[in-house]
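Escalated from tier 1: cobalt (II) ion holo job.
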Amino acid sequence: MVTAPTWSPGSWRQRPAQHQPDWPLPDEAEAVRAQLSKMPPLVFAGEARQLRDVLGRVASGQAFLLQAGDCAESFDDFSAISIREKLKIMLQMAAVMTYGSMLPVVKVGRIAGQFVKPRSSATELVDGVELPTFRGHMVHGDAPTPEARAFDPARMLQGYNHSAATLNLLRAFTKGGFADLTRVHSWNQEFVASSPEGRRYDVIAGEIERALRFMAACGIDLAAERQLHEVDVWTSHEGLLLDYEESLTRRDSLTGDWYDCSAHMLWIGERTRDVAGAHVEFFSGVHNPIGVKLGPTATAADVAHLCEALNPGRIPGRLTLISRMGAERVRELLPPLLAAGKEAEQPIAWVCDPMHGNLIRTASGTKTRRLDDILSEIRGFFEACGEAGVWPGGVHLEFTGEHVTECLGGSQAVVEDDLDVNYSTLCDPRLNARQSLDLAFRVAELMRVPGEA
Ligand code: PEP
Ligand code: CO
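Tier 2 regenerated the structure:
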């Protein structure tokens, strides 16, 4: 990949930048940027390259992407337990999907940096008072007061520290024994294990253990196989707050290329994917794998232009396009975009976000999503890809390992009256652990090659 000669980490400032906070004291923001730019990188360029190569296999139909995590991470709900529970459900889902499809599942968290949100409206009414809408803990507090909602650039430093601590624990969990395949049973939480999907999981876990014992009996030294004891869980977030992303951009000493070292993978949101805008300019010059969300207004020309801007060298794994059309319209809206990707001869990893096109409000105004709509959009995505001869490369989800009641449905259905019981998201409604596992089984069924047992 060649970076344009006009590009620099700050060249996005010449372009219109949407959804950026209006810092009250620009000097203070400048001081924070200067401080952040001296901090150690959170990830290494070499790691981002490894993920790019793995995503290249997603693009060519040899692997499947599971990208999932919170809609917005919180500075407050920040503990070893919440990180461990998210990892557990991710590992469980990946085990189900790998076992069901016999394909590698690439695990990417919306984690260790998912602290900034774009919002459709700039303000909201809370008890009759008009306040700036909540845009994530990296820029202000969520409490419904004018003081909490004032933008504070020092929160970028806090966001960096939270990301570093999260990533540190994630590395320990994934490399230090917790993710060992011999512990496949222990990822099933008690409240999930007693449910139909939890029992179904235990059956698979038992089969995986038998397979491991079989390999050991054949004389394979399981202890020597790193892949059985460690997993790679990569980090990602929406690259929305460009002050932060620019400050964490470093030149790789090995290749001389620029990398945004705030996460392995970054994505550009539906609201900031304008090809002439600041976000596309910034991400055109860093060499990380990049995702772009595509909603119902995306056109074939947008796909062609985004491909040209972000992956002119057609590098496999560089570009992931994440469709989020809504269950009702995916069959109609996705095919022309898939065709445009083929026309451009681009090695795109096509992924389905079945969450953001399926938001509804209950009669009392609570934001929610129906698991049935989410599953229906995934089915529509698989069908559209199948007809176009394009590999359906993965899913992008909002979930939590906890027992929340934010999305409707599931085998022990969450109904409208339950939504109040444990509705704790800072932003969009997330799948709970049982709904996520249920979804993993459905996706595994869709992934199974027709004709295979
Ligand atoms: C998100 O992923 O949380 C999000 C805001 O998505 P989108 O840009 O697709 O609306
Ligand atoms: Co969201």
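Residues 115 and 340 are 32 Å apart (CA to CA).
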